[in-house]
Amino acid sequence: MAFNTNTDIWIAGAFAAFTVDLLVYPLDTLKTRIQSPDYKKLYTENGRASRALFRGLYQGIGSIILVTLPSSGAFFTTYEALKYTLNDAVPPNSTLYMPQPVINAISSGGAELVSCAILTPAEVIKQNAQVAQKTIKGVGPTLSVLKEFRRHPFRLWSGYTALAGRNLPFTAMQFPVFEHLKSHFMEKRRRQKGAEVDGIFERASITSMSAGIAGSGAAWITTPIDVIKTRMMLAAGNRGQTVENKNIGTLLTEGLSSKSSKGIWETAKEVGQTDGLRGFFRGAALRAVWTAVGSGLYLGVYEGGRFYLEDARKSKEEKNHIMPKDWSSVQVGVGRSRSQGEAIKKSGWQDDSK
């Protein structure tokens, strides 16, 4: 981190998000459709998946790419800043002891709160576009969904509490395990090589593997709140829904409060009544696979990009310094002449005998 700037972290995080969105977005669309309350009605025929389930798998990708870039940059900037601030404030030998997994969990949790506030509108647009069956003539799914929110733009922040409620435990579980696995695999590789792991591709590969393992487990466990989040965001796009005039701050903490909208507990109760316990884990296997691939690519590309930028900045810094940085090897003053092998005599005012 000595040679990384906030700009480096933003660029690495944004590039990672862009790469993942392009590659694994179809799996996210499938997961959203499977969790939709209208899944059986719209995407099945005779108890089996219909062709409609696999049609238009990139619907809504424009909105999520546009907003994921700043949200991912905000996440990694906040995460790195909190992690290093807490590590500096609570050194290993201090009287105030805080385990590293706790530091990682706090840092990732704080980063998620910032990221979710930016990401929620895009998530609402994306998920409604993913299940859009009819669109306005000559207009794509994303713009069609946006027109639905034109009169009530604050509805775009509905589901923030559910999104944060899913992402906070997810990152709190994923990042401590991820950091532990990464350190374990790095140390194992270091012992095999007999040297530090400094190759960008090698570091990115280890990071990707660690993130995939940690992410898949966390994704499976947090699937119930993901189902609730999906239902709430899809409900926000329903036509005819009315919303009281509220500011964004109120919506972030309370969500929608109209008669036609439902909060987290009401939505959870509805899922339980209609689908039972199995309904809370609808799409869990797909989400675990999607998250393993997505998290592996996401953090792997981020780590590779961050160290690439760090190496480039480090090389540039070293080239710009003509004089050596380490002055301990430079001898000045009274001593033996390196060219003649003789002792340099003291000046008259330095003679101790006088």
TrEMBL record:
Keyword Ribonucleoprotein: no
Keyword NAD annotated: no
Compositional bias ranges of the Low complexity kind: 328-341
Domain of life: Eukaryota
Protein name: Mitochondrial carrier protein
Gene3D superfamilies: Mitochondrial carrier domain
InterPro entries for the chain: MCP_dom_sf, MCP_transmembrane
Renumbered ranges of Solcar repeats: 4-85, 99-184, 202-308
Signal peptide limits: none
Composition bias type Basic and acidic residues, residue spans: 343-354
Keywords, sorted A to Z: Membrane, Mitochondrion, Mitochondrion inner membrane, Repeat, Transmembrane, Transmembrane helix, Transport
Primary site of residence: membrane
Region (Disordered): 318-354
Mode of membrane association: Multi-pass membrane protein
